[in-house]
Write a structure and sequence with these properties.
By secondary structure, this protein is an alpha+beta fold. The protein has one domain. The strands form two sheets. It has a six-stranded mixed sheet, with helices on one face. A hairpin with a 4-residue loop joins strand 3 and strand 4. The longest helix has 23 residues. It is elongated and about 65 Å long. The two termini are 26 Å apart.
Length: 174
Amino acid sequence: MNDYSDSMAELTQKRAEFGAPWGTSLKLMTVVSTAILVGVASIPLFTGPSGNIFWILIMTVMPLSILFICSLFMIRGFVLTNDTLVIKRLFWNTEVSLSGLESAAADPKAMKGSIRTCGNGGLFSFSGAFMNKKLGHYRAFVTSPKLSVVLRFTDKVIVVTPSQPNEFISFLSD
């Protein structure tokens, strides 16, 4: 392509950013889980065999590592372009191609009755692989289940929770 074609392609590239507000359930799960993990990590300060490195590693390093690792996967927002959904994480982005997108619909009860098959169930996000009767197997990038938008592709289902679900859907349909 020449310089003119490149600049025209940039002008026609649409982009919209959406926040990822935390719902009450995520706030509660994160606070409770953090309290439990920090509480467990503080146990070696008061009890247990002193000087036992295995005890200290299991009781201190493991819970704090879980807390740290889960915080890295928190969802900070969503960016839509003509052909990509970008899930903004703490230090990186997860990109999902929009090719094969068949429909996008707001559904505040999309995650109802879900079972987590692999992923995070409420420590900084609800993310990973889930399943329920309504959606079957799906991938979640969720911070506030009431804001759920179900993206149905030819080969997969993804649930996201942008701050403005109707505007998000509108952008996808333009």
